[in-house]
Amino acid sequence: MNLLYNHLSVNQDGHLAIGGMDTVDLAKQYGTPAYIMDEDAIRAMMRTYLDAAHTHFGADALPLYASKALCFTGIYRIAAEEGMGVDCVSGGELYTAKRAGFPAERIYFHGNNKTERDICDAMDMGVGTFVVDNTDELLSVESHAAARGITQRILLRITPGIDPHTHKAIVTGSVDSKFGSAIETGQAMEIVKLALAQPHIHLSGFHCHIGSQIFDTHPFSEAADIMVRFIASVKSECGMDVEELNLGGGLGVPYTEYDRPVDYAAAIKDMAAIVHGYCDTHGVKMPKVILEPGRSLVAAAGITLYTVGSVKEIPGFRTYVSVDGGMPDNPRYALYQSTYTALIANRPDAPRNCRVTVAGRCCESGDLIGEDMPLQEARRGDILAVLTTGAYNYAMASHYNRLPNPPVILVKDGAAKVAVKRESYEDLVRNDIL
Ligand SMILES: *Cc1c(COP(=O)(O)O)cnc(C)c1O
To answer: How much distance in Å is there from the Cα of 110 to the middle of ligand 1?
Structure first.
């Protein structure tokens, strides 16, 4: 069958392997459900972004890992070792980055509603750049910076007004959005003027992020055009030379054989050609460019292993294959009807000639990993692998039905190590005091 990615293979025993390691053995050793990640696949994607950004945007370009996609201390260490920046969106992500020793200067702090405490914590940590969403926040950042006697570098989040034709829950760049200030309404220019008037703020540039799981570079070039025009108008109205332009994240990844693979280096090359071109056309000096991929760095590297429990055929309707996890470890089908590829890891080469609904174990009919999925005939005790679960799975995990979160296991050079331990029942009651 089509395993989508090169780090997945079928080994001599006829089992699914990830990074050369047998998934059936991994399931035995670490139990299920478990997230398994190929560390080299993550590092390779980081290098692809770094190399392409430096080659096409210039030596000062910086790709950030959007760490909301998958957050634990080890991933910040990997990002730091590879020379990436990171984007954090909460006090919890900042704390995790700090615990991992990630250089604060290379952190960009996002979010549409940073709390006062988040702002203080981030400043105490020395976070390099705040990506300021709105006027309220701008004034709060100014007052906290003033209280500390520092000048805080910021970018302003700008809404370019683009519809990238993806799921509406993951569109972020249109005018009616909870994120940023829109150019169209004039609010973007107003907040620029307000920021320039603050004595403890250094406005270094602008940020936009148009959405996620985007396969086409066209929406990015449209956004780049709009942002470069905006930079030109800021120069002429305010005399400001924009130092930095952050084009956000959002490049897609294949989840099934029907999704087209993305050539990330080529996509970055295209974006760079377009940004250079628009800068020339609009008479704008090429800013330092920041990219902010999340999903495309980690999604493909990860798989989830489950053990098959009940297999229930409802004649004339469907077959339910139930697994020992579900929406608490992967809520993406429940949220967005996301598609996935599933296979029986102990016989991946058997024909996938069944159509099944893979169901979780929670008391919720919507607790599904997918409907109408092609799968080998499944039996109780089989190991079921769901591919491409590295992004927005562990990061979105909950404890619904009091299920402990699975571990995150990293495989590299023929060895596996636990990056995040499986939660115990004791962990679940740790904060229960009454
Ligand atoms: C989510 C997000 C990203 C990353 O998006 P991906 O689709 O995972 O690449 C980048 N920047 C911002 C501001 C985001 O909210």
So the answer is: 10
**Burial of 365: CB neighbours in 10 Å, binned 0-12, 13-18, 19+:** exposed
Q: Is 363 a catalytic residue?
A: yes
Among 280, 297, 314, residue at a domain's last position: 297
pLDDT attached to residue 30: 98
Beta strands in 19-121 (DSSP E): 21-22, 34-38, 62-66, 85-88, 107-109
Helix (H, G, I), strand (E, B) or coil at 202: strand
Structure tokens that stand for 214 in this block: 């985007």
* pLDDT of the residue at 223: 93
Number of Cβ within a 10 Å radius of residue 22: 18
Which protein residue has the closest C-alpha to ligand 1 atom 15? 209
Of the residues 282, 297, 312, which one is the last residue of a structural domain?
297
d(CA 9, CA 6): 7
pLDDT at residue 167 is higher than 90: no
Is the minimum distance from the CB of 294 to ligand 1 under 6 angstroms? yes
Q: How far is the CA of 383 from the centre of ligand 1 (A)?
A: 32
Q: Token pair of 58, please?
A: 């210039």
